[in-house]
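User: I've been trying to design a sequence by hand for this structure and keep getting stuck. Would you show me what you'd pick, starting by listing the structure so we're on the same page?

Assistant: Good idea, let's start from the same input. This is the structure you sent:
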């Protein structure tokens, strides 16, 4: 499978000279299965850039999975070109614990928040699908876990040919108030070939954000150690964190964890698994 990070910023998109390296688009992940299927996780502002390339490659069937419906994970969808193509078939999966995916997307594209086209009027064919703890799309097996985050949120693991990638964004690893104890995350990500995990807050800021549903780089590294992970990408970067700040975080951690490849997720980065 091929994985492309299209949005790695948390909370709100940013654009300034200090964030050019890691980028400012909010969460979106593109996965191409070896069997050819197109999977997209979340529709933060990063999804907009994917639209023209899918049209160019004549990809008209795709699978879009929502982890949850906070703005930074869905606000790019009204600007995603395939939804306006009548020959597009978009299979949509998302939690329905508090609200159905259909309703969550409809709320976003209503007046006065969005002009002209409502979600129910988009010309593409939208097919609502169910996601529970297991799912298979082409050659990719998908497993889910419930993250510790305000409003019901899914963590995901993608498995193909004995390679696995865990994608846990918007997740507070150590909290007593959440639905999932830390130990379950260790089991879920155990020996994954790549972990992509939310590391929005610094240790100092975290003290003031208990229960907000995000983790720190040092908490992510605890999980990395406990689960035998060798490759990690820190993501959901805080909008106030500059490239320099993120570089420094990675540098300091790399000095401590010599046998782990630690990097920060960056918009546009592609990873190929054979
Ligand atoms: Zn988020
Ligand atoms: Zn969130």
């Amino acid at each position: 499978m091929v994985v492309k990070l299209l949005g790695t910023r948390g909370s709100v998109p940013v654009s300034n000279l200090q964030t050019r390296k890691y980028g400012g688009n909010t969460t979106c992940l593109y996965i191409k299965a070896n069997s050819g299927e197109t999977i997209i996780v979340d529709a933060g502002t990063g999804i907009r850039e994917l639209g023209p390339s899918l049209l160019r490659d004549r990809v008209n069937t795709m699978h879009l999975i929502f982890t949850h419906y906070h703005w930074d994970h869905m606000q790019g969808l009204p600007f995603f070109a395939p939804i306006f193509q009548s020959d597009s078939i978009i299979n949509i999966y998302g939690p329905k614990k508090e609200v159905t995916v259909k309703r969550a997307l409809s709320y976003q594209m209503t007046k006065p928040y969005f002009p002209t086209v409502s979600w129910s009027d988009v010309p593409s064919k939208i097919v609502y699908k169910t996601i529970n703890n297991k799912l298979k799309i082409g050659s990719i097996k998908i497993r889910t876990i419930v993250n510790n985050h305000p409003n019901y949120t899914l963590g995901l693991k993608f498995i193909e040919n004995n390679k696995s990638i865990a994608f846990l964004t918007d997740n507070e690893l150590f909290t007593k108030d959440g639905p999932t104890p830390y130990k379950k995350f260790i089991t879920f990500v155990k020996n994954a070939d790549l972990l992509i995990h939310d590391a929005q807050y610094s240790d100092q800021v975290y003290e003031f954000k208990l229960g907000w549903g995000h983790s720190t780089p040092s908490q992510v590294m605890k999980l990395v150690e406990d689960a035998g992970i060798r490759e990690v990408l820190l993501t959901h970067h805080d909008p106030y964190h500059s490239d320099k700040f993120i570089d420094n975080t990675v540098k300091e951690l790399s000095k401590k964890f010599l046998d782990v490849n630690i990097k920060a997720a960056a918009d546009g980065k592609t990873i190929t698994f054979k």
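That's my pick for every position. To get oriented when you compare it with your attempt: The longest strand covers residues 140-146. The helical segments are 50-56, 101-108, 182-189, 203-206, 217-226, 243-256.
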